[in-house]
Automatic annotation (TrEMBL):
Highest taxon above the source species: Bacteria
Regions crossing the membrane: 21-39
Protein family membership: Belongs to the transpeptidase family.
SUPFAM superfamilies: beta-lactamase/transpeptidase-like, Penicillin binding protein dimerisation domain
Protein name: Cell division protein FtsI (Penicillin-binding protein 3)
GO cellular component, one term: plasma membrane
An annotated Gene Ontology molecular function: penicillin binding
Record keywords, A-Z: Cell cycle, Cell division, Membrane, Transmembrane, Transmembrane helix
Source organism (scientific name): Falsarthrobacter nasiphocae
PANTHER family registered for this protein in UniProt: PEPTIDOGLYCAN D,D-TRANSPEPTIDASE, PEPTIDOGLYCAN D,D-TRANSPEPTIDASE FTSI
Keyword Cell cycle annotated: yes
Annotated ranges, domain Penicillin-binding protein dimerisation: 60-198
InterPro entries tied to this protein: Beta-lactam/transpept, Beta-lactam/transpept-like, PBP_dimer, PBP_dimer_sf, PCN-bd_Tpept
Amino acid sequence: MSHGAPLPGSYSRASRTRMQFTIAGFLIVALLLSGRLFWLQILDPADNASKVLKTSVQAIPAQRGEILDTRGRVLAHSVERYDIVVDQTRLRKGGEMRTSFERSVPTSDGKTAKETVTVAQASKEIAKILGIQQQQVQRAVTGTRTFAYVFQGATPKQKDEILAVRMPGVYADERDERQYPMGSVGGSIVGYRNQESSLGGVELMEDKTLQGTPGKRAFQIGRDGIRNPYGTSDLQPAVDGKSVKLTIDADLQAYAQQQIADATSKLNGEWGNAMILDIKTGQILASADNVTVDPNDLSRFKGTAGLQPMGFVNSFEPGSTSKIVTFAAALEEGKITPTTPITTPNRYTIDGETFKDYEDHPTWQRTAAGVLARSLNTGTVQVAAKLTPQQEYDWFRKFGVGQTTGTGFPGEQTGIFRTPDKWDPRQRYTISFGQGYTQTAVQTAQIYQTIANGGVRVSPRLIKSTVDADGTETPAPAAPAERVISEKTAAELNRMMENVTVDGSGQTGALKNYRVAVKTGTAESVGSSGTYDAYTISFAGFAPAEDPKYVVVVTIARTQEITSAQTGPVFARIMERALQQRGVSPSTTKPDLYRTFSDKTPNEGSLSH
């Protein structure tokens, strides 16, 4: 046995010593871990949970419904878009902006490899995808903010390509973007939205129907920011909004917009409106303004011009188109018949107030129908004198003057119509020919719809139906109907209005193949100085007179043109387009006209106003 050999039993003693130390070490570590676990799970479980896991709630946006025209054509819809945003701090290291970063790229063998790319190069790639300047991207990603926009409104394809660049901190927020495929066709009716809310039109009026109900998704996220695959996840599905189908016919709307724009420009008017109303249903087929917003590009419009539909929000003194209400009241009260004789000098004084007609003329022996045909103020105030002020007021109210029509359209005006105790001596009579109060074009259309519909008013409406996400269509409730005048009175007014077309001031609105019942109107218009310095000219009527289908009202405000005959051709073209487009057969009978003179003078048949 050599001297260098260990003594028997010495190896086992050393091994045992080392083993004891090892076991002791393990016991100490285990004790520490157990203590920490006891602290985390028993003494402070809430604090541990907040550090290890957190619950994140993610909103699931509901798809906003479409806005459709009466034939189902899309006027407004939402498309998937993304805002490209950046957490600028992810591109910083040690307080300084990084100049490069590492990213994974696919290789030809289907694997991935690491490459280093400069921030400038990545910015150039993103800029090319978006079609913007590289400097714009670099400015957006440079800084210390945790949130900044790089670009708003990227397409899904652009979003995928940008995320593939893998620039640290750059990500995409999904949102819906509202688009309006028909642009300015019915733009102020359809309305418009920004990214947050609806601002006008049907978008605002039917916002609750269109927006649907967002859903929710809840899940747990670890401290590393990664979703825990074993965490709970609760899903409340989003309920998509319903689509809203309007009564507006996009073809008629576009045609009427062009016609009223041309006419308003030609007559140098401040604004103009043309409205088409279905007589039986009250559906508004068109409400066209001379200037209409394109909701895709609101930046072109300053102030409110073109943003709001003038047929609903602009009120004006209507002039002689409202004489029809005075005659309706007198007929209903039994004060006149269509053939009641009325002596009409060029000037007429009553209760100390003198009224005159538009043109000088000799004293005529007219019938009531003849007074209406030639739109004579001197004869109309004599008809009004047969009514008490309260009767006159009540009948105008029955026809809807001074109150909304019930469309529900945001901002619809009632006009101004004071009670008789607030009328001055002159206003007591000017009311009868449409001066001294205001109304809107849609109120005028409602008056003529009532007469054309045999005396039954059907409230105008813009909503035809709603359409669920699964395609189920639910008609809107029928518009309220109310009898205003007797069927007999309505028929008499219809015939009297045909006299206007054939013998009086409405000849420029006549149609070759259809019988038309019309009334013209010219009213003085108050300017910013508070004085009358312009005119509002109107043309209202319906066709075919023997079986009325549609009302058309044309209004051009604040023009220097004094004769409403200028609006007749616009009325005629729009009415003819509506009748032909909707397949209404031409008239096959001749009008049964009243005599317009109470003496032996024959009806004019060729005069114009």
